Amino acid sequence: MFLKRFLEGFPAHCRYLTAIGLAVALATAPMHVLAQDQLHPPKQKPPEAPAKLPNVSKIPADPAKRLDFLLGALKAAPDENSAKHVEAAIWAIWLQTPSDTAALLMARAKTAIDGQQPQVAIKLLNAIIKIRPDYVEAWNRRATLYYLQNDYADAMADIGQVLIREPRHFGALAGLGMIMEDLGKDKQALDAFRMALAINPHLDKVPELVKQLSEKVEGHDI
Known about the structure:
The protein is 64% helix and 0% strand. By secondary structure, the protein is mostly helical.
């Protein structure tokens, strides 16, 4: 099993934390990706060929089915431009919450983060998690803040909650690779990066990290 492989070779005092927390979220997807203005194409030089985006008429209205559809479209995206548009739509779904209170608190948490007030943001995220423990992105953002403070134990515990609710969270899996690499666990990092790429083959910088780690761990590239 994947978890069993991850635990192999860990010091005893790390195994519990690794079991309950499998990743550090959004390490490869900065928080500004979740902003609504990121859902629109950036004002850059247009690509040589039009991006092949999913047929809007075929996207299901139900959020769960829409997420399934978009994850499939992301994996099959023919180029980076179309993949980034699909990825942004996935982040937007993960950001959604049916709770107006949670949405308001999340907006305030983002403001605190933008204002370099991580402790204020953590308190706001604590409140969101208390009222909406099913809200993946509240756990996700709090984990990110813990990670940025080098608080790996709390970050991993929170990301364990993220992956319980959404095991296809490619940001969390890529983040797991980063934290495992920080801890000197190159094999675990390589496994995590490969799992992230299996879901989202278009993650920035991750293919190069896989190449580097595979050469280091296995003696050859991918």
